[in-house]
Amino acid sequence: MKTIAIIAQKGGSGKTTTAVHLGVAAAKSGLLTAIIDLDPQATARSWGGKRTAEEGPEVIGDHASRLPHLLDEARKNGAELVIVDSAPNADQAALAAARAADLILIPCRPSVFDLEAIRTTLDLAQIAKKPAFVLLNAVPVRSRIGAEAAAGLREQGAQVAPVSLSHRAAFGHSVIDGRSAQEYEPAGKAAEEVAALFSWICGQVGISSRGHVHMKA
To answer: Cβ(67)–Cβ(35) under 8 Å?
Structure first.
């Protein structure tokens, strides 16, 4: 079982949007997938309650203190991928999620305030000693701001995911009734970005789209 922790200190960074879209992409690829919603706002759990598709992911909401138990249960139930949607802060609960992860994603909008607020989350990932990548999210289409933000982050020593998520209507419209952009507009650009991001993540943690875990070369 592989675990992805999605962590961001600042609210509105796109944590839950990222979690549910990756969860659907994983489930559609054949992975038995669970999303653990540790955010008190329970946005991912609310999305899961609206979902009518037969395929996963399963969404579980609980207190952060129960994360070790939830991960054990997921493993016993045959989960191949677990995505942890943490609360919007950088505290002990976020650190626990980071330490339990095989990969940490840090969603961040390419704005000055968001980029300035990301340092604490990067420090937390460093303490956890797990691979962490900034995921630029809600990047304006046909703008250089995303590339400029990525360059600035790399200058600070941060690793940046090679795939970003753009500011597209499909991301917002699809989650209203428990879907993802890949289901709402399968041939759209948003779906294409999610597929590329998921494919890259699979390569990072060593899983194939059929749920086979392998070692990275």
So the answer is: no
